[in-house]
Specification:
The structure is a single chain. It is built from 15 helices and ten strands. The protein is α/β, with parallel strands linked by helices and 327 residues long. The longest helix has 23 residues. The N and C termini lie far apart (43 Å).
């Protein structure tokens, strides 16, 4: 079985890229913009304002999102983590329709993962998650990319992977929904730390140490919240962490880099350049503390973002932690 008709909600860079992926896979796809003006602009230009220079596949239908029933054999929710609840609040889907979250984060206040929000707001749907090492511009252009697609049952996960997959876009299927979500959420916070290291010009050795010890944090947190080891060491865990901690294309890395260079979070916010990790950091640390999980790097990032520590103080605190066995 294949999902022949797929709706993509969210016409930003990632939504546009995934719409192109679906069209190349031979499926009928509709890209639904939450802002009617954005839909009109895409139709007029043939590209998303958020992904300039990358043409939208001519087989992608574009429309403005309206409240009510969404038609499709599968639906991709490609909206920021903190707005996902609002985006699905007035939607209606047919029973057992797979609804795939394509955001990486944890909702502030509720501590809900993306699939939990879908389950609450769309109880008739089957929540799923797509995550992994991927930049929108690469995917939109058809460059080789591999990701993880997880659903509660293997049949749905396989069906979605075959529906979206192509020679250039390879979804590996999984039933470890929570593990995939944890990898995507935690790596955003750690990418901010990696950006700070780069912005402070602390060197390649420090960057490697940060990424390695950050992965240890991700694994500890993931195990405490039920993730499978193979998920954490896979594409949506280690793979995504490596990508976002080493590339200026990552918005979280860029934000950390600007902090490391001396910009304030307020200045970055005024420029409209806040990233998902800013909102997830504090929630992740709270959840780690709840289960007695050590996350010193994430805690340092949270303290910097909250203004509780200056960057140099946070670095000193990390570097003066007691010596211990690796693990």
């Amino acid at each position: 079985m294949i999902a022949e008709r797929i709706a993509v909600i969210g016409a930003g860079a990632w939504g546009t890229a995934l719409a192109n992926v679906i069209a190349r896979a031979g499926r009928a796809v509709t890209l639904l913009a939450r802002d009617p003006a954005v839909a009109a602009a895409i139709i007029a230009r043939g590209e998303s304002p958020r992904l300039p220079g990358v043409k939208l596949d001519e087989r992608v239908a574009v429309a403005a999102l309206a409240a009510g029933k969404i038609e499709g054999d599968a639906i991709l929710l490609v909206v920021p983590a903190q707005t996902l609840r609002a985006a699905v609040g007035e939607l209606v889907v047919a029973p057992r329709t797979p609804v795939v979250a394509c955001a990486k984060g944890i909702e502030r206040g509720t501590r809900r993962f993306m699939t939990e929000i879908i389950a609450e707001c769309l109880p008739a749907a089957v929540p799923a998650i797509l995550s992994g090492p991927s930049f929108a511009s690469d995917v939109a252009r058809g460059l080789p990319t591999a990701v993880t697609l997880a659903a509660p049952d293997e049949a749905t996960a396989k069906m979605l992977a075959h529906s979206l997959g192509s020679a250039a876009f390879r979804p590996y299927h999984s039933t470890d929904v929570r593990g995939v979500e944890i990898g995507g959420a935690a790596k955003n916070v750690l990418a901010i730390a990696a950006g700070i290291v780069a912005g402070r010009k602390l060197g390649a050795s420090a960057a490697a140490a940060l990424t390695t010890r950050g992965f240890a944090e991700l694994v500890r947190f993931g195990r405490a919240w039920g993730a499978r080891p193979e998920t954490l060491t896979g594409l949506s865990g280690l793979g995504d962490l490596i990508l976002t901690c080493s590339s200026a294309q990552s918005r979280n890395f860029q934000l950390g880099h600007k902090l490391g260079e001396g910009m304030s979070l307020a200045e970055i916010g005024r420029a409209g350049e806040l990233a998902e990790g800013v909102y997830t950091a504090g929630v992740l640390v709270e959840m780690a503390q709840e289960r007695a999980v050590e996350t010193p790097i994430s805690a340092a990032v949270t303290a910097v973002l909250d203004g509780a520590l200056a960057i140099d103080e946070a670095i000193e605190a990390l570097m003066t932690r007691p010596f211990r066995a690796e693990g």
